[in-house]
Amino acid sequence: MNKNTLVITYNDYIFLNDVCNRNYTDNSMSSNASSQERNRYLDIQHKLKDISRVLWTEYFNSDHSLKCDGSSGNPLNRSGSLKWPWSCVFKGSNKQYGAQISIIFEPKLGCMKVGFFFGGASRHNLSKDESQREMKKMKKMARNLKTNIAKNNELQERFYMLETLGFEFSLDGLKQEPDQWLMSIVSNPIYAQITASIPITKMNDITIDSFKDYYSQIAFLLNVIDLKAFANQRKRNCHIDSDTRKRRLDILERIGKEGEEYIMALERQKLRKKNILRKNYPKHVALYDDSCGYDILSLDDDGREIFIEVKSTVYKKGQKGANIFFMSDNEWQTYLQKGKQYKLYRVYGVGDKMECERVDLGRVKKKPLNYIIDY
Questions:
Q1: Cα–Cα dist 12/172, whole Å
Q2: Rounded to an integer, what distance in angstroms lies between the CA atom of residue 46 and that of residue 75?
Q3: Strand pairing of 342-348 and 305-312?
Q4: Cα-Cα-Cα-Cα dihedral of 91, 94, 95, 100, to 10°?
Q5: Which residue in 97, 109, 44 sits closest to 67, CA to CA?
Q6: What is the distance between the alpha carbons of residues 342 and 33, in angstroms, rounded to a whole number?
Q7: Which helix (H) or strand (E) holds 325?
Q8: How far is CA 273 from the centre of its chain?
Q9: Mean pLDDT in the chain?
Q10: Calpha distance 142→191 (Å, rounded)
Q11: pLDDT per residue over 248-306, tens digit each?
Q12: Which CATH number fits domain 3-240: 3.40.640.10, 3.40.50.200, 3.30.930.20, 2.30.30.230?
């Protein structure tokens, strides 16, 4: 298997968007697709399975208590439309009643999703008694997951960090807070998900490393479901390895840079409107030097220099946790030195619909040394 070929391209997405929006008859893809198109569809399907196999090997050491699977069989669903390919590593005897780390196409959003899922509990091909037994097993996995996270501080830190990294918690399509999600899955894990989106664009193929960035943050959830395995392998399951930490920092850095670029665009627009056109303003200084204590050098309405620090988050404005961020001692001392010339902007909704507000640092609560800011 050549890892360099395990790439999801924009052309893959365009192709799938075409063939998956056609009408098919006779329960067969051949009714409205050429043999070449059918083969390409299967190639993408196999590519996703190979990606999950690579991740299964790397993050679960090919643990055979887990299974690697993906879309298979007749690619048409019961309504006669073509299914979008997906793949997963799952725990349980049946993926519809199992816990999964999955990668799936999300056609309406133009992205791929990576995340932790509980199955949809389909009774297709199962008797009522079999379905009830499988459902009982899935509820036990959900209960174990909640229990193991609750009893270990490092697991809690990793779990709650997921939202900061851009993962969204939902149950049956409805967004939830992490605490609410953990409570809900004990009684009803069906369609419970923790997912992050990777956009599919003309300029950005999705490589195996792109998947690893998010897979590395979420994979631990499968490792800690089983109470016995958790007890026997506690250190391995809890430990955040250096690669995972690096990928976490890379994600946080991307979130920060997107917020800074958003404020840069607003500053350019402001200076144009005010007809304040000076060379090198605004300047994105954080791209060249991260020791200044601010990110952007710009001008106020009177043409005087201002020093802008940007704090970015995937949280929406008003969401729990959105009004808490960290400032370094250097940033705080720069604020004290610059006074009213120092401006701090909080950017919300990175990766979605961004908005911002200015934070008055003279009215916030702070805890030293690297200050936790609450406003």
A1: 28
A2: 13
A3: parallel
A4: -10
A5: 97
A6: 61
A7: strand 324-327
A8: 36
A9: 87
A10: 12
A11: 888 999 999 999 999 999 999 999 998 988 888 999 999 988 889 999 999 999 899 99
A12: 3.30.930.20
The SS3 of residue 357 is strand
Q: Which helix (H) or strand (E) holds 304?
A: none
Report the sign of the C-alpha dihedral through residues 157, 160, 162, 166, in that order: negative
Mean pLDDT in residue range 20-33: 88
- Name the H helices within 274-328: none
Both tokens assigned to 260: 């800074």
Measured CA to CA, the distance from residue 140 to residue 78 in angstroms comes to 31
Please report, for the chain, the start and end positions of each structural domain, with discontinuous segments joined by +: 3-240, 256-374
Q: CA neighbours within 13 Å on the CB side: how many for 90?
A: 21
**Rounded CA separation 266/173 (Å):** 34
Q: What is the CATH number of domain 256-374?
A: 3.40.1350
**Residue pair 75/41 in contact by the 8 Å Cβ criterion:** yes
- Cα–Cα distance measured from residue 226 to residue 231, given in angstroms and rounded to the nearest whole number: 9
Helix (H) or strand (E) holding 43: helix 35-60
